[in-house]
Design goal:
The protein is of the alpha+beta class and about 210 residues long. The chain folds into three domains: about 110 residues, no CATH class; about 40 residues, no CATH class; about 40 residues. About 40% of the residues lie in helices and about 15% in strands. The protein has seven helices and seven strands. Strands 1, 2, 3, 4, 5, 6 and 7 form a seven-stranded antiparallel beta sheet that branches. A hairpin with a 7-residue loop joins strand 1 and strand 2. The longest helix has about 30 residues. The protein is elongated.
Length: about 210
Amino acid sequence: MENNNQSMNTVVETFYVSETINLIHDNEALTKWNEKVEELKLSGQKEVVKEDKSPIPFLWMNSAIVSTFETLCPTKIDIKKYDKTPIPVELLEVVSLCVKEDYFDCIKVWYNEKQKDPVIVGYVAKKGEKKEDWQFEYYGQKYLIGRWADVKASLDQLIERAKKVFIQSETFDLKREIKDRQRKLEDLEQLAHDKFGNAMPVTDLSF
């Protein structure tokens, strides 16, 4: 990961992976990488790397990282339509690289309506999948490109923050559910009376 803090109070962070970033501009290293992938028949590597392109140099989002940023930044929108806060020029340059190298099928901004601490996420659909917007959230791979915020926090700190938000939210929902169940339990006698109280047994059908 690389920190590119260059503007006023805003922290700009890009999530380059050091093992692959040098392949972006080093043609010799990229050629050697491709030759080894071919030599070793690494079909999995070919699935995530587009032909004649360098490997994606950004942090792959595992399920824990996805859950973290989905909790902290629940609103998602195509980067072309994002209009809440200015995107720092440092990140626009990174996105420009992503577009030029055709790394992703879709790039979105995830953000929180209240805190506005956005992240930029790149999506790669699996080969053969129809690339519809809603499918990107459920299929394929996600990569963390960058983020900007007023207060810097490490990825580990963000994970801990997301845990607290999750626990608070779940606690609120569970307490509300308990209250609803308790209310239904208290009303059970009345419900039983409404259901059965007026039913008179028919013992004599003679006229």
